[in-house]
Specification:
The complex is a heterodimer of chains A (356) and B (256). Chain A has 356 residues and is an all-alpha fold. Chain A has helices spanning 10-39, 47-55, 61-96, 108-121, 141-165, 170-194, 197-207, 216-235, 237-244, 247-252, 257-279, 285-296, 301-326, 334-353; strands spanning 128-130, 136-138. Chain A has a single domain (77-353), classed as ABC transporter involved in vitamin B12 uptake, BtuC. A two-stranded antiparallel ribbon of chain A has the order 1-2. Classes of the chains: A mainly alpha (356), B alpha/beta (256).
Chain lengths: 356, 256
């Protein structure tokens, strides 16, 4: 059929701009929070001085060191990791057609924890030292990171292979992920049972996601992978919208559902694996943020993906800032806070959402 | 012939479902596929637009084998309206806009939005346009789904039981909308159905399927009680009532 062209309805334009404004407001808020977060900590500085140091001129030598060597990498890691975990959650929920989809449903974090434990015990990455600035550090963190990453990618590979045998069914992916996650937890417990005190502490410590572990070089790797994958996801937003409408509708719209699903799954897992191998397990961001944004912006992936990106950054940065300030001079690992604050927020959203 | 199906076969795990289906479809024609549950009506429809891959036979669009066409080009020719529609927190306008997917790659243009607005006006959905799908009734969702298929600007519309979840008034509304669009725009339509009376009233031709084959194909006015009995295994009478043929089962009453 050939359609006569109508007009662009004003109501729709207004409705689209409302969504775009929300995202822009989030970005502004994020920028403010970044400056604020760099300013405060065990020693607090004037935000104006921090702004000057960041963008214009040298204020003091101490400020230069604190801002560029210590706080900025951590703050930017929060921004990038929050965005990556949250967008990975959106994509998984869409391609799996399941609201439970998140980096954790598929056993990725359990596998990463197992990889880290394995490196500590078997490959001897487990010596630790304590210092005043940072509680405990795993010696040879590079080895642990690589092992965690390898383990989570192997787990993802197995999940996808199993799903492939069953013709890419999303239910099979979820169930295989749950099974694999449980297997990895058991294997980690086995290692922990036979580990000595020092090794056990290192294993457990690794699972406390902590953004302070990341330096500029690691941040570069995380940002490159996350950035590239998010671009890919944004480019595919119409395909995810089509899959949300049902596999059959998507196919009849010319979408290759299987390819979109496997690529989405693999890249979302990759982003998650890269992030958690460097910073440790950070729970709930990938599940809560997309759902928060779904309630405000809706399920349209064109806006859901950028919206979740901003919200994920905001949430993780806010949590990390709170974790640094709450019990100062002691520093809490951020992962404790995300799950602690995330779960009640999530429950609240569920209750409010179903009263509609 | 816009669409031609030649010797089409399909099976799930070696169990044959479709066994040598042949038929053609011309413009301005609305065809209803009828037959008992599990006979392969939906499977046939899904084979036509590539959701399922046929194990044998060919499907031609304007004499071109569908296997030699890109999915994107097929979707500009064939649009599919599924039996079940998934709601979400998405406005009707955005859901219909999705039908432009075969034409867009990166972002939508103004003409895509204008076309969506035009189809909303054609189907009289202005009131729904900015409502969210998860607040809609079955009939409203079905209309949105048909609008999405139409905004694909297809030549052939495939509808899987378009009236199965609708009340009487909505059934008639949807079917007469489909009827008008097919004749008014030089399109063609194929719909699977259970409601034989609606099929006889709205479709030009009916195809009866039995055991994976087309048992008989004829104009709606030429359907005989013998055909219906042979396909459904139930004796019926066909009477004219208020100008339309009506199929009534006979020999069965409430107490039987």
């Amino acid at each position: 059929m050939h359609l006569e062209e109508g007009t662009v309805p004003a109501g729709y334009v207004k409705y689209i701009w409302a969504k775009i404004s929300l995202i822009i407001a989030g970005l502004v808020l994020l920028a403010v929070l970044v400056v604020f977060s760099v300013s405060i900590g065990s020693v607090s500085y004037d935000p104006m001085d921090v702004l000057k140091t960041l963008f214009m001129s040298h204020v003091s030598r101490q400020l230069d060191v604190v801002v560029f060597n210590i706080r900025l990498p951590q703050v930017l890691t929060a921004v990038v990791a929050g965005a990556g975990l949250s967008v990975a959650g959106v994509v998984m929920q869409s391609v799996l057609g399941n609201p439970l989809g998140s980096p954790f449903t598929l056993g990725i974090s359990q596998a990463a924890a197992f990889g880290a434990a394995f490196s500590v015990m078997i490959m001897g990455g487990g010596l630790m030292r304590s210092s005043l600035s940072d509680a405990i550090t795993v010696i040879r963190p590079g080895l642990t990171t690589v092992a965690a990453f390898a383990a989570s990618m192997i787990a993802t590979g197995i999940v996808i292979m199993v799903a492939r045998i069953r013709k890419g069914s999303p239910e099979v992916m979820i169930l295989a992920g749950v099974a694999l996650g449980s297997l990895c937890s058991a294997a980690t417990m086995f290692l922990q049972y036979f580990a000595d005190d020092v090794q056990l502490a290192a294993m457990v410590f690794w699972t406390f996601g902590d953004l302070a572990r990341v330096g500029w070089r690691e941040l570069g790797i995380i940002s490159a992978v996350t950035g590239a994958c998010i671009l890919f996801f944004v480019f595919n937003s119409w395909n995810y919208n089509a899959i949300d409408a049902g596999d059959e509708t998507a196919t009849s719209l010319g979408v290759n559902v299987k390819v979109v699903r496997f690529l989405g799954m693999s890249l979302a897992s990759l982003v998650t694996a890269v992030i958690i191998s460097f910073v440790g397990v950070i729970g709930f961001v990938g599940l809560v943020c997309p759902h928060m944004v779904r309630r405000s912006i809706g399920d349209d992936n064109r806006f859901l993906i950028p919206g979740s990106l901003v919200t994920g950054s905001l949430l993780l940065l806010a949590a990390d800032t709170a974790a640094r300030v709450m019990m100062a001079p002691n520093v809490l690992p951020v992962a404790v806070l995300t799950s602690f604050a995330g779960a009640p927020i999530f429950l609240y959203l569920l209750v409010r959402g179903y009263r509609r | 012939m816009m669409l031609k199906v030649l010797d089409l076969c399909f099976g799930y795990h070696d169990r044959p479902v479709l066994d040598g289906i042949n038929f053609g479809l011309g413009s301005n024609e609305l065809v209803a596929i009828l037959g008992p549950n599990g006979v392969g009506k939906t499977t046939l429809l899904k084979c036509l637009n590539g959701i399922l891959k046929p194990s044998g036979g060919t499907i031609q669009i304007h004499e071109t084998d569908i296997r030699r066409m890109k999915p994107r080009n097929i979707s500009r020719f064939l649009a599919y309206v599924p039996q079940k529609n998934q709601g979400g927190k998405l406005t009707a306008f955005d859901a219909i806009l999705l039908g432009r997917r075969p034409y867009i790659t990166w972002r939508i243009g103004r003409e895509d939005i204008r076309k969506v607005e035009a189809i909303i006006r054609t189907l009289g959905l202005e009131q729904l346009s900015l409502r969210s799908l998860d607040e809609m009734s079955g009939g409203e969702l079905q209309k949105v789904s048909i609008a999405r298929a139409l905004v694909q600007e297809p030549k052939v519309l495939l509808l899987d039981e378009p009236t199965s979840s609708l009340d009487l008034k909505n059934q008639q509304e949807i079917l007469s909308t489909i009827r008008h669009i097919v004749t008014g725009h030089g399109m063609a339509g194929i719909m699977t159905m259970h409601d034989i009376n609606s099929a006889l009233r709205f479709a030009d031709r009916v195809l009866f399927m039995k055991e994976g084959r087309i048992f008989s194909a004829c104009h709606s006015s030429d359907v005989t009680p013998e055909m219906v009995e042979a396909v459904y295994g139930l004796p019926v009478a066909i009477e004219m009532f208020c100008g339309s043929p009506v199929v009534v089962p006979v020999g069965i009453n409430k107490r039987a």
